[in-house]
Design brief:
Layout: H1 8-13, E1 31-36, E2 43-48, H2 50-59, E3 65-66, E4 70-72, E5 75-82, E6 94-102, E7 112-115, E8 117-123, E9 128-134, E10 140-143, E11 148-156, H3 157-161, E12 172-179, E13 187-195, E14 200-205, E15 216-217, E16 221-223, E17 226-233, E18 244-251, E19 263-271, E20 280-288, E21 294-302, H4 303-306, E22 319-335
Parallel strand pairs: 2-13
Antiparallel strand pairs: 1-9, 2-12, 3-5, 4-5, 5-6, 6-11, 7-10, 8-9, 8-12, 13-22, 14-22, 15-17, 16-17, 17-18, 18-21, 19-20, 19-22
Length: about 325
């Protein structure tokens, strides 16, 4: 389906071969841009709610999102996307995208891979793909000291963000890649960042005073096709021992989570006040992964306030803890 901000009459009368949102000779003279109807042969990378991904990366002080691994021409690759521009390589004010070679440990010592590749951005108005590549089909050499090549100035953000240009329509965009063999069909992914309808888990802890000072786990619960659990330290973790209650949201399957995968989530943790609405709450964004599987705070609620009966957090020796996953990313793999 095409999305167009123009009227049907304007679209019908437009010469699509002579119009484009950005001059094809824009920017670096070493880069060439062209249009074509055929989609990328090796990888499609579709992002829904792109603006939310950009904001989460800012909030979590991450620069880039890395796609799932795909195979082309006998090697493994991924795309590295900088939605807010790669400032370290003069990409500020642009979309930056790179092709990265991965899983190279089994390659022979001194390995080199010579690559002719193209990156793509889908124009949803024209139903065409802008193809970006090094001029004259230049071959890039991937090796142990240089594992990625790409374009810091793929497209200006001002052009990309303007829906009239067709690249970002209804906050959805599509990138792609070809490596060596154009007619090879690879796999792709759709990254979705969405608000969950059923997004709150309540953990009621009876006989709280009987808990020792060590860590305690909630039951596993599912929100956004991802399994979670809560970690609670009744008397504080190692950073706040005997001073604060510590509370964390944890990726349940972190020890088997794919090493290249990240789950971007905005979440709230709270301890409910059982007398009124003056709950203690912590809200944050986090990039959950196998190496960063927990988000929360050591100094969540002081033990003095916790045990003050007049404040209403601990009533009849019962504590009520909640986790709310407001927004989370899900990845769906598909074949084109």
């Amino acid at each position: 389906m095409k999305f167009s901000s123009k009227s049907d009459a304007e679209t019908e009368n437009m010469d699509h071969n002579s119009w484009h949102a950005i001059p094809l000779d824009y920017g670096n003279s070493e880069v060439t841009r062209s249009l074509r109807d055929i989609p990328p042969a090796h990888y499609i990378f579709k992002i829904e709610r792109f603006s939310l991904l950009s904001q989460i990366l800012i909030d979590t002080e991450e620069q880039n999102y890395e796609s799932d691994i795909f195979e082309a021409s006998g090697y493994k690759w991924k795309l590295s996307l900088y939605p807010n521009g790669d400032k370290e390589r003069e990409g500020e004010g642009h979309i930056s995208v790179y092709l990265v070679i991965v899983e190279t440990r089994n390659l022979p010592l001194g390995w080199e891979v010579n690559v002719n590749f193209k990156l793509f951005v889908y124009d949803q108005i024209q139903d065409k793909y802008m193809t970006i590549q090094d001029i004259d089909g230049k071959v890039r050499r991937f090796h142990g000291m240089k594992r990625e090549w790409g374009f810091a100035q793929l497209l200006p953000l001002s052009t990309f963000n303007d829906a009239a240009n067709g690249y970002l329509i209804r906050d959805t965009c599509v990138f792609g890649a070809e490596v060596f063999v154009i007619n090879y069909t690879g796999r792709g992914e759709c990254l979705t960042l969405g608000k969950e309808l059923d997004n709150t888990h309540t953990w009621k802890i009876d006989n709280f005073s009987s808990l020792d000072g060590e860590i305690h786990f909630s039951d596993v619960f599912t929100i956004g096709n991802q399994k979670w659990k809560l970690w609670l330290y009744p008397k504080g973790d190692s950073l706040e021992k005997d001073k604060w209650l510590s509370l964390y949201l944890v990726l349940d399957n972190w020890n088997t989570f794919p090493s290249e995968r990240k789950t971007y989530s905005k979440f709230s943790l709270r301890i409910r006040n059982q007398y009124n609405d003056q709950h203690v709450e912590f809200t944050a964004s986090n990039c959950f992964s196998a190496s960063n599987f927990a988000g929360g705070v050591s100094s969540f609620l002081s033990l003095t306030d916790l045990h003050d009966a007049s404040l209403g957090f601990l009533v009849n020796d019962t504590l009520i803890v909640q986790a709310e996953v407001i927004v989370t990313s899900t990845v769906k793999n598909f074949s084109e």
